[in-house]
Amino acid sequence: KAGVTQTPRYLIKTRGQQVTLSCSPISGHRSVSWYQQTPGQGLQFLFEYFSETQRNKGNFPGRFSGRQFSNSRSEMNVSTLELGDSALYLCASSLDFHGHPLKNIQYFGAGTRLSVL
Amino acid sequence: GQQLNQSPQSMFIQEGEDVSMNCTSSSIFNTWLWYKQDPGEGPVLLIALYKAGELTSNGRLTAQFGTTRKDSFLNISASIPSDVGIYFCAGQWYSGGGADGLTFGKGTHLIIQP
Prior knowledge:
The complex is a heterodimer. By secondary structure, chain A is mostly beta strands. Chain A has strands at residues 5-7, 10-13, 19-24, 31-38, 42-50, 53-57, 64-68, 74-78, 87-94, 107-108, 112-116.
């Protein structure tokens, strides 16, 4: 069974641009969550999608947005990039975030490393 | 956002030694998880805990869900070179209506000295 796949693995953008990252969850997983990882702030929850709807949201500005498609694949978008947005963006999928705890275990992809110049 | 207090930040140990690390929170969780992250990869789940006081093992790894629900501990026995990496604790609050996102500690960097 293939794991969580994130594309691209690396991205370089300049300030003010916007970027879209993609995540394909494990087959059969319905929930997708996004996290930002930086040396200073560590791993922080961005948002979670289930059935094409955002169900949970972390404490990030509105420049960070996402969506989920009917096949559970998800994308996140960051608009008007800032230097501080440079980070490893991780996607995690679970069978059913909204259900028994055992079904909430999140499996992570390898991430997309975004560098903003 | 909230973060968990994870300690130690780094550990320098000899191969074969036992390792202990812990995580504390100001809030309670009803799920505690331990992940390991290798360079260039995403976190990989090691152990999941769902009940206060629960003690769970996975090979040489043993983790405990603290009775206050505000802490958790991870022990690695007889460390080997492939144990090198960054270990993260994560807490989650789950209710019948859903679960919050994971709240992570800042990680324990495990280094094995030759």
